Amino acid sequence: MLTISQLASYAGVTVDAVRHYHRLGLLPEPERDRSGYRRYDAAAVVRLIRIHVLAGAGVPLARVDDLLDAGPEEFAAGVREVDQRLRAEVRRIQATRRRLARLAAGEHTALPASVVGYLDRLRDLGVEERYLERERDAWIMVAAQVPDEIDDIIAGKHRDLEDPDVVRLYELLSGALDWTADDPRVVEVADVLDRISWRAVESGNVRDAGFDDRFVELLDATMSQSAPAARRLLTLLQERGWRGWTRVERVPDRGAGSSP
User: Fold this and answer.
1) Rounded CA gap, 62 and 214, in Å?
2) Distance between CA atoms of 117 and 111, rounded to whole angstroms?
3) Which of 204-238 are b and which e, b meaning 16 or more Cβ less than 10 Å from the residue's Cβ?
4) Dist. CA 90–CA 84, nearest whole Å
């Protein structure tokens, strides 16, 4: 007759595992001997080994009890069921690994090819990688909100890059993450944006992706917190008669910022 520690050793499990199987009712607890110890026989060793093998093969403990007492046909059917479940789990894990691999690839993860191409064009213009990371994160959110419209939006962004003012804007913003609020280049950014916004209004080319107000507030808040100079830039734009960053709108009844 065996003690609990000897039983665990023969089956290749821990004493805590034996006690856990007792609590689950998978392994019956024997009566105590005169010394107050539980003593296990060979049948307990065999049952514990079978429990351990089934659990190690991925059989849920809730199913182990059924399989232990099943006949040959029922056992075989149960094993096939577990095998199918494990195969599905393997496919899920493989898919997760593929997603992780894409995550490691950076912006190709959650972005359509059109956005990746646009970011590559900005790189060709010399835009710094640190700024592109911020822009990439914003596009990830935008693409998730309007997946059916993102390619058209990006096509418009490519057209915008034909405007020298837009190119100059990116040249400025590329290094803006390190600017202080009183950097004179903040004024130049505000002037460039003022000209771009006026041309869009006058040409009727004001694009609205249809974002809801909460999402616009999220993107604007992200921008305003991105650099020390960001809040001052928004203030300068308001002085010129504009408000917002994601959805630029004309401030009504403002004398400043008349059309250049």
Assistant:
1) 46
2) 10
3) eeeeebebeeebbeebbebbeebbbbbebbbebbb
4) 10
What per-residue confidence (pLDDT) applies to 109? 59
Nearest in space to 159 (alpha carbons), one of 189, 191, 203: 203
Q: Kindly state whether residue 15 falls inside one of the protein's structural domains.
A: yes
Radius of gyration of the chain (CA): 33
The closest of 5, 74, 78, 12 to 49, measured between CA atoms, is 12
Span 227-238, pLDDT tens digits: 889 999 999 999
Average per-residue pLDDT for the chain: 85
Ordered alpha helix ranges (H), the chain: 4-11, 15-24, 42-56, 61-68, 72-104, 113-124, 129-145, 150-160, 164-174, 185-203, 213-224, 230-239
Last residue of a domain, one of 103, 135, 153: 103
| Inter-CA distances, 46 with 27, 30, 50, 52, 63, Å | 10, 15, 6, 10, 18
Higher per-residue confidence, 141 vs 206? 141
Give the range of the structural domain holding residue 138, as residue numbers without chain letter.
Answer: 107-250
Write the single-letter amino acid at 259. Answer: S
Contacts by residues 5-13 (CB-CB < 8 Å, ≥ 24 positions apart): 6/40, 7/40, 7/44, 7/45, 7/48, 8/48, 10/45, 10/48, 10/49, 11/45, 11/48, 11/49, 11/52, 12/49, 12/52, 13/48, 13/52
One domain for residues 85 and 212: no
Place of tokens 């849920």: 60
